[in-house]
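## Example record

The block below lists the input lines for one assembly entry, exactly as stored, with component labels intact.
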Amino acid sequence: MSDIQPENLPATTPGGDAQTPAAEVVDQREGMFGVRGTGDTSGFGGLRRQVALPGGSAKPYGSWYDAATEKLESLVGDGAIEKVVVAYGELTLHVQRDRLVEVAQHLRDDEALRFEFCSGVSGVHYPNETDRELHAVYHLLSITHNRRIRVEVSCPDSDPHIPSIVSVYPANDWHERETWDFFGIIFDGHPALTRIQMPDDWPGHPQRKDYPLGGIDVEYKGAVIPPPDTRRSYN
Amino acid sequence: MTTTDPYATADPYAQGRDTTEGKVFTVTGQDWDSVVSGLGDEPEERIVVNMGPQHPSTHGVLRLILEIEGETVTEARCGIGYLHTGIEKNMEFRNWTQGVTFCTRMDYLSPFYNETAYCLAVERLLGIEDQIPEKANVMRVLLMELNRISSHLVAIATGGMEIGALTVMTIGFREREMTLDLFELITGLRMNHAFIRPGGVAQDLPPGALDKIRDYITWMNKHLPEYAELCNANPIFKGRLQNVGYLDLAGCMALGISGPPLRATGYGLDLRKTQPYCGYETYDFDVPTWDTADSYGRFRVRLQEMWESLKIVEQCADRLAKMEGEPVMVADKKIGWPAQLAVGNDGMGNSLDHIKHIMGESMEALIHHFKLVTEGFRVPAGQAYVAVESPRGELGCHLVSDGGTKPYRAHFRDPSFANLQAMPILCEGAQVADVIVAVASLDPVMGGVDR
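Predicted structure tokens for the full assembly:
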């Protein structure tokens, strides 16, 4: 398929070295200006481009990443770490969701890892990544070693459960509530998983991609400008 | 009516009503008598008080739910979300440059930190971290440190006001006003600047700004000691703050507390030192700490940090004096926002020189201008997390790009949000009056908490 180009990625060979990881396609971008159907006379409507995130890196990862991931692998055994991504000078560990608490415990307690500080969890919704739609992304800081690491866990939309790591990092209490509130990820074992930003009776989870932004048309001197999420724009 | 209802007739604002949860009173101050008499012969000692969200001493629209027995708080919880404006969601529908306009409004007392964290994350994804002009970095540091002073001044001023130290409030806002005047001079706005942009800053320093900064430094050197003189050894001030809101290092680590509350435990964790950004490693400053882990310690840390910030501002001014005419935006024409603004006789707008350049001189410049303004730039797919040391602690920005012209996801780890989790542990077991002091010592800004 020569007409489908992974967009904006460094020139890469699949499974290349750590700094140019193979891309992981998560979506397809269509068109150019947000115009759909017969209204598009530009010809750009036929444009199809892949949306690809940096994929798994191959060893060696470079820097302190190798020692840290090997140490963690030796502690939690095979299978817990699905994928290691090194991109933009940051280390991301994709972790099996049922092993998350164990991994977090070792990341915090092991002397060679010692990630004492959890900066919270952030959700990301990839609606076209089948069975991995919802991602929970944790950022940990090791004050001892002055390092940062990212732990990413995914779960399907049909079964949005991820174990809570509040028992390991109490700091995550509100952050997990926020991610539940905005993405609908249920953190099993959280002491009180209730909404935190939206009202208690709010329907839906507003930061999912299928949740509209909302807004009304604005009229100015006879011209009508639609709200941002229905406005024509480059995509 | 045969039965007399003392609290129904005494005060229309302190009426009682029965609910399934028990008796509910709406109290607006100075009418505790009606509540006490309304409790009847067998009063229930345990009262649940909703403090806020519109209470003057809870720092914006923070709601505190306090369970009190007499004057003692037995349980305390926060209710937040009253200022949630969906900034993160909105950013997904605007281009990368417009994102600055949104995130600057989160923590409205430290807007430059929001902007910097966001821009550093965008720059990491763009791979242009090394190409940011030196002058842009110095201006970022200058603005951030001025912002730290203005933010700490608000923290100290409102904290003082809440315990009755009104002079601290009036002088605090006086000095803050001087800082905001500088912001207005440099960025055009007192808050919501959107001045720091991906690739650099929006404008060069205006003429005369350096003189104003030097005047400001002189002014602050004269007036900053007043806070220490008013508060440091003041027995009432110390009586209200010392041993109130105690949280030791272990507690801070467990709850993810950063910033002054952490440094007041004696541990000088500061991202400007440990993971420097914007060239902080080249400035000479110290990280003040205190060892009492209480509200007084946090006050002293903030006070000392203002001096350190002033030192950095002075160094920035010296550097900027030697950088006249240097660029403040990345040289890459496909990223750097092209338009320079100028003040005309009808207000601020595009500079006429720039319009002449794109309309009359350079076709390429016109194309770059058009593409950047209509489409924006595309950011390579991936994610980045950048943290900066805001006046309140670690402000992190997690950005996900799908390779498009807009952020796929922007998330901010706001230090106010994280630090506010410590509210129950600071307040439980203390008196109601101490709750005010303890919350003020965390210095939460609800715009940042709720985003």
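DSSP finds three helices and eleven strands in chain A. The longest strand of chain A covers residues 117-125.
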